[in-house]
Amino acid sequence: MEYFEEQEIKDQQYEDQSFENFEFVECNFTKCQFLNIKLTNCKFKNCKFNNCVIGNVKFLYSEAKNLEFTNSVLIGIIWNDLKNKGIETAIFRSMKSCTIKYNYFTNLKLVKYDFSGSQFDESYFEECKLTDAKFNGVNLHGTKFIKCDLSGADFRDALEYEIDIADNKLKKAKFSFPEVISLLSSLNIIID
């Protein structure tokens, strides 16, 4: 396995490539592009991604812990594929001011995560624990929450989310008017 620790990786472009047996620990990726990449048996621990574009990356037998994303674009990522072999650890520490399109978050513990400043598009959270998560002011265009625990989550000033109130736990979740009316759409009722 090739091992990299505390490396600064800048302005690199990787497209239509496969990587196998790499480990990155406390590395900083800045202004890098990862498009249509296949990562097999790779590990990322405490790495930071700043101003990166990451799209359609496939993970096989790979794992990640405590990743930080800032001002990055994340497209078509299935985060569950980076789980640490059944061990419940945090895949990422934060996502700040990111554009997140067509991402799938399944069976992840995302307690108290702060997604503020980011923009989502057609993404899915399914069976995730999002208690006390912050989505303040986030545009969640077409993003769906399916069987999630959203207790105490903060959706004030968030826009365009899709939450079925019968399918998710919402105890003490915070919403603001008028967007909170969208919660009623799952009831198939008519509001005049």
In the predicted model, the low-confidence regions spanning at least 5 consecutive residues are none
Radius of gyration: 17 Å
CATH topology term of the largest domain:
Pectate Lyase C-like
What CATH architecture of the largest domain do you see?
3 Solenoid
- Give the termini separation: 63 Å
Mass-distribution shape: elongated
Largest sheet: 10 strands, parallel
What's the average pLDDT?
91
Could you state the order of secondary-structure elements as H and E?
EEEEEEEEEEEEEEEEEEEEEE
The CATH homologous superfamily of the largest domain is called: E3 ubiquitin-protein ligase SopA
Q: Give the proportion of residues in helices.
A: under 10%
**Derived structural class:** mainly beta
The overall number of domains is: 2
State the CATH class of the largest domain: Mainly Beta
Number of helices: 0
Per DSSP, what share of the residues sits in E-state strands of 2 or more residues?
35-45%
For the secondary structure, the number of strands is 22
Give a written overview of the molecule.
With 192 residues, the protein is mainly β. It folds into two domains: 1-101, E3 ubiquitin-protein ligase SopA (Pectate Lyase C-like, 3 Solenoid); 103-192, E3 ubiquitin-protein ligase SopA (Pectate Lyase C-like). The protein has no helices and 22 strands. The strands form four sheets. Strands 3, 7, 11, 15, 17, 18, 19, 20, 21 and 22 form a ten-stranded parallel sheet that branches. A five-stranded parallel sheet has the order 2-6-10-14-16, with no helix packed on it. A four-stranded parallel sheet has the order 1-5-9-13, with no helix packed on it. It is elongated, with a radius of gyration of 17 Å. The mean pLDDT is 91.
